[in-house]
Each structure stands twice: as structure tokens, then as C-alpha cells.
Amino acid sequence: MRDFGSFDYIIAGGGAAGCVLANRLTANPAITVLLLEAGNDERWIWTKIPVGYLFCINNPRTDWCYQTQAEPGLNGRSILYARGKGLGGSTLINAMLYLRGQARDYDEWARLTGDSNWSWQQVLTSFKAVEHYWQGASEYHGADGEWRVEKQRLSWEILERFAEAATQAGIPNTTDFNTGHNEGVSQFEVNQKFGTRWSSVRGFLNPIRSRRNLTLVTAALSDQVMFEERRAIGIQFYLNGEICQAKSRLETILAAGSIGSPAILQRSGIGEADFLKTKGIPVRVHAPGVGANLQDHLQLRSIYKVQGIQTLNQIANTWHGKIKMGLEYAFLRKGPLTMAPSQLGLFARSDASVATPDLEYHVQPLSLDKFGEPLHEFPAFTASVCDLRPESRGWVKIADAHPQHAPLIAPCYLSTEADRLKAAKALQLTRRIVRQAALQPYQPEEYLPGIDYQTEEELAIAAGKIGTTIFHPVGTCKMGAATDPLAVTDSRLQVRGVQGLRVVDASIMPTITSGNTSSPTIMLAAKAATMILQDRLGA
């Protein structure tokens, strides 16, 4: 077994959270850090050009290309479960949308953990500290951080008309989705710099790569945590087929994401005892919450054909359109190649009795059957809507003790009656918006799910037909109070039942945020780094 030596901290995972942790911990030159990333140091051009997500998702170069189990709620379908592969993790391939969620999300975290440090007022300070906002500092935004937030660099008339239709349907305009209450319609702000993708590796890791106290190893597949009695003392990993190990003097930190981190814990003997025994893994800590509590946003992609207005379908399906897009990007860093997967956002309530928005729309001036396939030949737009706070809970389990084998993933979408009813209401709201006067000149015609689905029960079935992940898995190593039997970590993200081991990534979220999950993960990693440094001084 190859020995990489000893470090103060070992971070397993170089994604959104891992890059932040490496940045913050190595700011002290007396602290040594080993950062392990299972993917490569990816410098492919399509991880820089925003529209490159079309080429990166479901590509084994940049995506782990997981598949879910057959989902009963999706009419027995198994779907792609994309997770970013390489330094930067899913920030290499995600939608680049800057969204924090709602104040209620974090106040709920504080209630569930019994720790006010996770309340909205506390996390707002952390959001601002990491943010580099295009309009400068304000009550809600910061300007001195590494996480760039900019306006989009293109516009579409079809999206402007959809926004107008939304206001006609009773949904107000807004100028900022990130003040704690995100109700309304507006263009999304994006994690970009002058028309290029701004990933966590660009923001947090690249500026500090030369620090002598940081050791970075890519293509290092983390297997399991090593222990002496109940204390984590390092990690075992594979590098080019060779078994390696590294020791941690202070802490081992798992930042491998909502799929990777529970898998590492399970291979390390931390998980549901009976399940671990079936895989031949000695039980170190019976922790039934490991891999449980999986939450995700299921998006329902309604597609409408239109006439008399331009969409990307017409442009991208011609050679002169492609040449024009390329030139516009090459010389101006503007146009369709700067597109996030969704440009227009909308947060709404499924019912008047709901206190805060529980639906999010991602509206796009294009349509296609699924990522990786060509755009449709006909002009169309897509209005995807997701349930922001689903009741359904899924799971992640290792297939066996070998880290090279993909884990089993079951999101269990639409497994509660409340989720099925909300899906139906969401599709009804989409239809109500599209019926408004602002869109009628373009003769919108429903292509998906189709007008044959009318009753709530029929629409719930339609949701299972068209639903797919929007790639926001969280919760599989959730933090919580000591009285919570499914809480894997405490509120300082320390794994219960052992010492010297933390989890720092989206898996620690006890409940999913009411919006996209990338920037909340950046925020929680920055908070975790502060906790780790505080605990080091207190030790």
C-alpha cells in the first residue's frame, strides 16, 4: 500500500465544498491539507463555455453518469442522475444559477438542529462573505468574495412574453430572488465571469494552488476512512489502480457529495447495521441515516410549440445560425453560447394557503427530448416546474464494498399523495400562464405532456411520464439534534459516534432548500471551514 504521509486535514472530494474548504483551511500556512479528487483536473473547453453543459452532462469525461433505480413514481423509468466529475464537481456542469433559497429553509435547519448558527440571519452573513456580486455590496449582497454573480448576457422575446404572461396570471415581478423571500418572476442571475462559467475550482482553488501547504491529488478514488478505535486517522483511496493511504493528524473531511459521501461512510462501516452486514462490511457505527433522507427537485418539463417568434430551435438547427452564435461568443462573449440551461425564473405558490413559494420554474427558449439529444426542428419553449419542498424521501446504498462500482440510487419521486397532487397543480399553473394574453399571438400548442391529460389524477400520471431530476440531491448524511435517530452529523457537521470525521457537502442538509442547491453548498462549506478552524484552536 502506497503511503502519502500525514496531513493536518484530508478532504475527500474536490467539488463545490472541497474547493472552498481547501481555500479556507490553507489560508493559515501552518496548516497542511491533502485534497483528493476522484475525477481529473478538467480543463476541457466545454467546462468553460456556459452552453457546454449540453456536452458535459452524460459524458463520462465530466459526469459520473449515474442511473437511478426504476422509479415507480416515474412509471417505472430509470433516469440519468448526473453528478460532476473532476475538480469543481457539479459546478463544472450545472446550471450556473445563483439562488440561495428562502429564509424559512434555514430557520427550519436551525430548528431541526437546535443551533441558531444555521438561521437565515446567520447564513446571510456567510452568503455575503463568499459573494462577488455584480451590483456591489448591499444589505443582501457582498462584493469581496470569490463566488462571482453576474447578469446574463442575452435576452429572448419569447421569455419576455412568458414573464408578462406570468404577471397576468397573478405572479409579481421581482428584481432579486435572493433576499430571503423569492416570490416572483425575473431573469436568473448566474455564476459567470464575462460570459464564461465560474466554477468552484476557478473561484476558490485556482487562486491558491501554489500554496505550499496544499497537496492536490486527482484521479484519487476515495474508498474508506481509516480508524484507530473510534477516531478517524485518514483515508484509503485508489490511484491508477494502486491502493494508497494518507493519515490525518486532526480531521478527515468527506466532501464527496450526496452520493459519494454516504457511500464512503457505508464502506467504512458507518451506516444501517443490517444492511452493512449483507455487504460483508464490519459495523463500526449503527447509523441508519447514512444514505437515507435523499431529497431532490423533480422537474416537470412542459413543452409548447409556438409560431411567429424566434427560439433557439430555429437558430441552432441551421449552419448560418451556428456560425453567428460562434462569432458572437468569440468576439463579444454574448449570445446563446453564454446561456445557462434556464434563463427565466419564476417562484410561485401551488395554492393560496401556502405561506411561501413552493414551486420553481426554469423557462427556456428551446426544446429537446432530453439532454444530449438535438433540439426539436419546430420552434418551441420549455417551462419546467419543480416542487421545491417534496415530501418524498429516497435513499443511496452501495452496491457492494468496491468503490469502483456505482451506488444504487432511488429518489422515490412522487411517492406521497401530497407530491402527486402538487405535481398536478404545477402543471395546471403552467397551462394557466400559457393561456394569458401575452402569449396568445404566438399560438402556443402543448407538445408535452399533451392535452389528453386533464384531471388531477391524469396530470399526476403525466408528471410521472415527463418528470426528471433537476440534479439537486441533498440530505443523505443530514445534520440534526442528538434526539434525531437519522441525524448522521451534529450541527458542526461532525459524524456522530466517532471522532475526527466530518461531512461537508449538500448531503448534510436536513431539508432541501427552496431553489437550486449549488450556492447553498458553497455557503455551508465556508461556514464549516470556520467551525473547523475554531475547533482546532479549542483543541
- Detail the poorly predicted runs: none
Largest sheet: 7 strands, mixed
Q: Total helix count? A: 13
Give the overall pLDDT as a whole number.
97
Note the gap between the termini: 31 Å
Structure description:
Helix content is 26%, strand content 21%. The chain is of the alpha/beta class. It folds into 2 domains: 1-63 and 80-145 and 197-295 and 473-539, FAD/NAD(P)-binding domain, CATH 3.50.50.60; 153-187 and 298-387 and 412-471, Cholesterol Oxidase, domain 2 (2-Layer Sandwich). Strands 1, 2, 10, 11, 12, 13 and 24 form a 7-stranded mixed sheet that branches. The radius of gyration is 23 Å and the shape is globular. It starts with a strand and ends with a helix. The mean pLDDT is 97.
Features:
seven-stranded mixed sheet, FAD/NAD(P)-binding domain, GMC_OxRdtase_N, 539 residues, 13 helices, seven-stranded antiparallel sheet, Choline dehydrogenase, flavoprotein, Cholesterol Oxidase, domain 2, alpha/beta, 2 domains
Characterize this entry briefly.
With 539 residues, this protein is an alpha/beta fold. It has helices at 16-25, 53-56, 103-113, 120-130, 157-168, 200-205, 257-267, 273-278, 312-316, 319-332, 417-434, 456-466, 518-538; strands at 2-12, 33-36, 66-67, 80-81, 131-133, 147-149, 184-187, 192-193, 196-197, 214-217, 220-228, 231-239, 242-254, 270-271, 285-286, 298-305, 344-348, 359-364, 380-387, 395-397, 408-410, 445-448, 467-469, 501-503.
